């Protein structure tokens, strides 16, 4: 016969509900995938990808490797909860097997095992015996989890120890779930201890001693206390399970699916798909994205960070400001332990809030550029920084490149600024226009001075030719010995433009190039972590004052190691910095041009 | 409205108006538009006020329409006008009275030109001499017929039998006064009351018991503008101007519009019909239009002349409602009887504007 | 109704009293910087789209203030949102959001 | 009776010059035709750009003046005869005063807005001048239309009587632009619900803090500036004013109704000043303001030795500029007097 007691109901019902929700949503999401992605999913399940996914789940969802890399305490905290609990369940099951006669154990049986089984035949220290070993193990794991709990409590007050300046402010459901979650393990400890103490046996090295001690104090009544605690334990579990789908903890089941999706090759698209929904669900609201967001740290705007944005999407609470007030600098994406493409989701959401802007570019004249092997495309902004154009012309001339200055007579925007408004389709005409001209020139290389253009060309144009930023191309020319240089050893701090660095993964070329003509100095935040200059076209609703704050903040980092020059590789960054910089702000091209002996 | 302010301006624009012995030059188009108006003027001057008004059947157009339509050169115009002067001089008169506002403006324009460029005057005298053998004197006083009526408004009021008040309620009738552009917009000093707040018609209305409405588009042109009206393609501009005025005056519920120019009454009257047929709008009370009168017609009514003798039956917007308000008796059966009582037949009723 | 072969010409006049200010009200909330335009025209001078078509972003701001919605609607369609104008504006008017916000407001009015 | 210097005009310039001369130990007689010294400053509520009460400034000026100089109110010179190196100022009262120098600090008149007939000042109840508005503000009573209602839309017409060949004044009066902006802000302070428009040809925010004030007017007070010159005004049935203007920024005619229209009237020379100038043979400019020897270095000297000029009788000036100008004049007169001894 199967042991049963009323108090197991809350747990059981909660569990059933949670499982139902998970299955329901997973099914929904997979079913809603675009045809293509659904096929990828089917194929994925029966392939090695499945295993690799499991591997990642283990390392990320249980061990929390990324978290560890970010901050050991934070990582340990997450691990103790995830891994500890996971193992409690696994070994708990094994342990229950020892005593259970039936093959189908109700899920509550291992969870509340100590309530049903009081095995005095084995004592707590006899860990060489199987039951003894398990008792030891279970108590140990419980301690493991509780250690995490203690850290979590400390994190409340001392979040900085965990590498977090600000933490996510939570909603009601979060608070309820959290309280239950925190209750579960201490209560379990007490419940087991009281029980073991009352029956004078059956406990492990922790529970038994604590139990005996409690029994001394509470005598007979400890039995009733125990029973009350078992109820509380079950209730805590039950309530937690029920609140999960409505709280941040929903990320746990969702992230699992996300990992499978990723391993099966499913990614985000320009419009919202289930992948987007899963990403949104997978946000654990750990708040890592809050600190890296300059709008918060520099401009004191605290309600639009990725975590809040994603939450608002999930609760269908997005408003115009939260959608449009974002630098789209990519720093949060870079930092996200779950690897959620917050910027992509932001652009998708923008579509709703940027109005039905039915752009009409029919006025663009058909044009037939001359043939050339290399095209130079300055870009809109570069026309406001003539020094860059002058430098580029000089360099290309010096290298004797046969090139065509495609937008010398006036630039037709690359289309990315429109895309940044979420109106992907509206950019089509611009893209088509430029693409046609580029192809007509029959060039094999397209060089641009503007990272914004670079990104557009690479991501939106799928051109059959090489698309390079000028820093990259100039480096090539130098390596080919086509540009004589005399290094002018000025101290230079290099600023990675968002769309060149995080956007186009071009970190090394600019640095290598600079190191040939100048002395690079360390910058506290560079490469993947580089700050945005504040001039971003990604943000729509921001005052000039706020922009200034971001710019000044970025400059502080750049000028910290007092360089003679702040070098950048983007006309927009250059103009933005020029407003507040204490030192000279130059584009890489200008620095190289100055280094050419006359 | 601060009337002292207006009165002050009116004081600044006093104008000399001869009190007798006028040489009257007619308008080209009024004979067709409002046939009885000029006749009424003569009757008032001669029979009621016992003034001498001279005419000469040989006088011609002043060529103003041609001049403003760019088809008659200024030299020609000056010579034509010089001939009118010679007719006046020959009749031993020196007070010129014009029936037409455009003529009035043009006579002044020519006289000013001669004043500032004496050699031009000499030249024109030459032209006239060689062309016609005539000579002329510069008139001592140039007035528009409305100036003259204005000058004698009190006398007319004294002998008049009707007043501009509702004969039942005694409420003063609300009048929109509209001045022809060429009356004082070219030479404010030549018009009674100047260009911004002309007084010539206001004076009559006030004297005869009415109350003038000052509505926002008061200054605006009626839309005649020769080039606008004469070319069909431009006619929409003409219409739009009148419409602008009607819409601006409508809220004031005017009892009628008073004018002193050949074109204005024509267009303010006929365009009401056109607009009603084009856009289905009417500007008077209950589907009617706003009656439009010339100052002679009005003076005639004050003096108790028979409306049909004043030619009011040729108006597009029926004047009966106004006559009723003023308590003027009229015989509907006689409305469409021509000279010696022969029946001219009845016109078709417009589809929107209330006519009968 | 009779066809006379001509119609009363529509006035070119801006009838400020009758015009629709709701879009402006919306903008005052969502992009107040538009209030500070001094019509210097730098934006129009540097405009990328302006190189290819008669597009006047300075005029966009004026039309907005006058409540001339129809022309406004047509004008903003030409904008490439490239943002050059923002870089040259002496009063820090945030043109790119201006365009989007105008569109949003017009949508709302529908 | 003998005096060293006679100052004609007890406005800002006159008061300042008087106290400076007193500082320098000169004997001064200050003539003021009104019953009280202070000039136009007496009628102004608050001053641009810092909106300091005019009364406060006036109080300061009076205090520095103290009772160190003889002041005659309700007095103005009838005749001024020049002798070898001195002058006899004959007051309207008939009294004769001998002095070594005369300072023309006669100030200005405000342009008579009635001369711009088409704007309807003195004809339409709800067309007022900037001076009328100051009077309203000074009285502390709420700004209302003639019907006593709070205006929901107020318009300011810039350059009324200034930069206007038709008014015979080609010059710019300098202070009206910023006064207009100041008053527009004050309207919004009194009636936050109201809509305020400035109709301008250029906004000349030439001095310190002016441009910032303009920016504040746009950004904080949402005051609208419409570039174009009002051509004419007419009155609606409800006494509101409908004005016509070209909106030069859209190149289209524009029509707008306002409940209250404020005409920003400029500076004009006083006929009285012209009379005295003729008397003394001081040259007068095309704009009827008094000419000085040199615009840069000798701007307090008239062509005539012993006759000096200060303040707005030689052209539009702000109060601050007037005070500086008068101070300089005092010093120049002091130096001149030394050459006599």
The mean pLDDT of chain A is 92
Relative helix content of chain A: 55-70%
Largest sheet of chain C: none
Please report the total strand number of chain C as a whole number. Answer: 1
Poorly predicted regions of chain A: none
- Name the overall outline of chain A: elongated
Q: Estimate percent helicity of chain C.
A: 40-55%
End-to-end distance of chain A: 97 Å
Largest interface: A-C, 37 and 33 residues
Q: Count all strands of chain A and give the number.
A: 8
Strand content of chain A: under 5%
What's the gyration radius of chain C in Å? 16 Å
- Major sheet details of chain A: 4 strands, parallel
Percent of residues of chain C in beta strands? under 5%
Which regions of chain C contain 5 or more consecutive residues with pLDDT less than 50?
none
Distance between the termini of chain C: 32 Å
* Count of alpha/pi helices of chain C: 6
Alpha-beta content class of chain A: mainly alpha
Mean pLDDT of chain C: 91
Structure description:
The complex is a heterotetramer of chains A (598), B (356), C (110) and D (341). Chain A has 28 helices and eight strands. Chain A is mainly α and 598 residues long. In chain A, the strands form two sheets. In chain A, strands 2-1-3-4 form a four-stranded parallel sheet. The radius of gyration of chain A is 30 Å and the shape is elongated. With 356 residues, chain B is α/β, with parallel strands linked by helices. Chain B folds into two domains: 9-145, Glutathione S-transferase Yfyf (Class Pi), Chain A, domain 2, CATH 1.20.1050.140; 152-341, Rossmann fold. Chain B contains 16 helices and eight strands. Chain B has helices at 3-12, 30-33, 35-48, 64-68, 74-90, 101-116, 118-132, 145-151, 153-159, 181-184, 200-207, 226-230, 235-249, 263-279, 295-302, 320-326, and strands at residues 22-25, 53-54, 95-98, 141-144, 174-178, 211-212, 256-259, 292-294. In chain B, strands 2-1-3-4 form a four-stranded parallel sheet. In chain B, helix 14 links the parallel strand 7 (256-259) and strand 8. Chain C is mostly helical. Chain C has one domain (22-109). Chain C is built from six helices and one strand; from the N terminus they run E-H-H-H-H-H-H. In chain C, helix 1 (22-30) packs across helix 6 (95-109) and helix 3 packs antiparallel against helix 4. With 341 residues, chain D is an alpha/beta fold. Chain D has two domains: 2-108 and 269-340, FAD/NAD(P)-binding domain (3-Layer(bba) Sandwich), CATH 3.50.50.60; 113-267, FAD/NAD(P)-binding domain (3-Layer(bba) Sandwich), CATH 3.50.50.60. Chain D contains seven helices and 19 strands. Chain D has helices spanning 12-23, 54-65, 130-139, 176-190, 210-219, 271-280, 319-340, and strands spanning 2-8, 28-31, 46-47, 52-53, 70-72, 77-82, 87-91, 96-104, 109-110, 127-129, 153-160, 195-200, 224-227, 232-235, 241-247, 252-258, 260-265, 267-268, 307-309. In chain D, strands 1, 2, 5, 6, 7, 8 and 19 form a seven-stranded mixed sheet that branches. A five-stranded parallel sheet of chain D has the order 10-17-11-12-13. Chain D has a three-stranded antiparallel sheet with strand order 14-15-16, with no helix packed on it. In chain D, helix 1 (12-23) runs parallel beside helix 2 (54-65), helix 1 packs across helix 7 and helix 4 (176-190) packs parallel to helix 5 (210-219). Chain D is elongated, with a radius of gyration of 22 Å. The relative contact order of chain D is 0.18. Chain B binds chain D through residues 1-2, 4-6, 8-9, 194, 196-197, 214-219, 251-252, and chain D through 114, 117-118, 120-125, 232, 234-237, 239, 242.
